[in-house]
Amino acid sequence: MQPLGPCLLGSRRILTHKRHYQPDVTLVVTDEPPDRPAWVSETIRLLAEGMDGWRAQLLERVSRASDAQLAAGTDDDWGVGQIAVHLLLIERGVALIALRLAKGEPPGPTGQPRPTASAVTRDGIGRLAAKAADTMAAFAAQFPAAPDLRAVARHPYYGDLNAFGWLLTLNNHYQAHLGALARGTKSAL
Predict the structure, then answer these.
(1) Largest alpha-carbon pair distance within the chain?
(2) Does pTM surpass 0.70?
């Protein structure tokens, strides 16, 4: 018996099904769809809205923490304040790296910021959140309709990524850290 379900055929990796699935459908496959600029624009808008949502969840979590909880944590076991600073710095940094790459510019510095607990303050988190929001708004307004997809920068864990590769890390990053906080566990991301 042949397996049911999707399979990939040929080098174009066209998704099809083996049994009686739309046998009369003709597909046109293009590497240059005419609606690409609108698709890119919509993708960037959705990403920016998603970051606004994650940032709001983070700030809500910070608002529930006491000042002592915000300042708690070690280099090996981060507290809520360290995680907040880290997420906001990463959001801002990734948006700037991705924007530069999309424009074909040098990416600027990459790496992982690791804040110390003693440097964390509620006001500092608020200022970083405002900067992250401003950066994300500027990013969305300036992202080119035809981004450079060849330009890459080295991610500390994933290796060389283009603009979209960098952007794909943001959702998982917020989700991993906020989920770990909710569970009372550490996040490897």
Answers:
(1) 66
(2) yes
DSSP 12: T
What residues contact residue 43 under an 8 Å CB cut-off, 6+ apart? none
Lowest-pLDDT choice from 10-14, 57-61, 74-78? 10-14
List the CATH number of the domain containing 133: 1.20.120.450
* Rg of the chain on CA atoms, in Å: 21
Q: How far is CA 167 from the centre of its chain?
A: 4
For the chain, the domain total comes to 1
Q: What's the burial of 115, exposed, middle or buried (CB within 10 Å: 0-12/13-18/19+)?
A: buried
On the question of pLDDT at 44 being above 90, the answer is yes
Confidence of residue 20 (pLDDT cuts 50, 70, 90): low
- Which residues in 28-181 belong to E strands, given as ranges? 153-155, 159-161
Where in the sequence is the domain holding 86, given as residue range(s)? 36-183
Nearest-angstrom CA–CA distance, 100 and 107? 5
Residue identified by tokens 């708004």 is 137
Residue with tokens 């700030």: 59
Per residue in 81-126, pLDDT (tens digit) is: 999 999 999 999 999 999 999 999 999 988 888 888 888 999 999 9
Phi, psi of 185 (to 5 degrees): -120, 175
Q: In whole angstroms, give the CA distance from residue 188 to residue 93.
A: 19
